[in-house]
């Protein structure tokens, strides 16, 4: 049985070229980049080259990029670092109700420490209101953290518009771009963001490596203490093979971004067409117009998400949902709750399909066909 992976928003398989580059790096460049001898200098050189190349991919300077262990650490460094560095100016933070838990839980923790957090609602497409944002902005707001593109439904937020509003305000502006980086062309100067998080394993790079863009002049309180790596902003010996793997993934992504975007849009259209051809009742959660090209969240009325996922897995298809299924109980996706309310049936019948470079049109047609059969079978019980 052919196995088909359509859960690329969770993680992506490493590109063969990335694996090869990392393997060579592990064998040849094992030195500590902080060492002054030749082994250290060799490692430092390739780390510096990677930092420059990755920084350029978002229009930044190499001095504005620190490497982290991934998106969660990048988000936490940005949020806690900005809050602690600016607490004398105020303790008000603005975020949204649909952020990744790396942001939501960080903000919740700051709430316990005496900060005041405003959670902006979203409409049924998953987008915040710019007016709501402006109404929430206060003189004592010190941090705004709003994700670029949502990991569950793909909705893209008006980041540039918010950046323009904040250009004359004291608040530090952070965006979690973990799901968007690689899919969307991002320029931090055009967006006017101060902080931006990204992760390698979402773009066919290795797990355990990410970056945080920190605009020159933005102050962050350090989260780790020890050495003076990353310009004293993140102590710890650099993960050289992972950094090089990240850079290789970035180069491959930049060479092929538009082709990938077009391909994933085709996959969305193909999957929807197959379902509709088979007379499957379904609705799209979010929007096709202003969404990440690789994420498609679909609601199947009168079905159950656990049954859908189990049957898909039995058919060799790996998809996911925003719900946490434990011991027969379903904890609804906080994103769908924010979009549709706590009583909506969509909370328990929605599936996320997310596409990647290993997929083909024929695979997506098969996914649609199998999904149609599963829904019809479940509906006839």
TrEMBL record:
Record's keyword terms, sorted: Iron, Iron-sulfur, Metal-binding, Pyridoxal phosphate, Transferase
Catalysed reactions, as listed in the record: (sulfur carrier)-H + L-cysteine = (sulfur carrier)-SH + L-alanine
InterPro entries in alphabetical order: Aminotrans_V_dom (IPR000192), Aminotrans_V_PyrdxlP_BS (IPR020578), Cysteine_dSase (IPR016454), PyrdxlP-dep_Trfase (IPR015424), PyrdxlP-dep_Trfase_major (IPR015421), PyrdxlP-dep_Trfase_small (IPR015422)
PROSITE patterns: AA_TRANSFER_CLASS_5
Stored SUPFAM superfamilies: PLP-dependent transferases
Residues covered by the Aminotransferase class V domain: 4-366
Keyword flag Iron-sulfur: yes
Record flagged with keyword Endoplasmic reticulum: no
A UniProt-annotated Pfam family: Aminotran_5
Co-factor requirement: pyridoxal 5'-phosphate
Enzyme Commission number: 2.8.1.7
Family (UniProt): Belongs to the class-V pyridoxal-phosphate-dependent aminotransferase family. NifS/IscS subfamily.
Name this polypeptide is given: cysteine desulfurase
The species this protein was found in: Niallia oryzisoli
High-level lineage: Bacteria, Bacillati, Bacillota, Bacilli, Bacillales
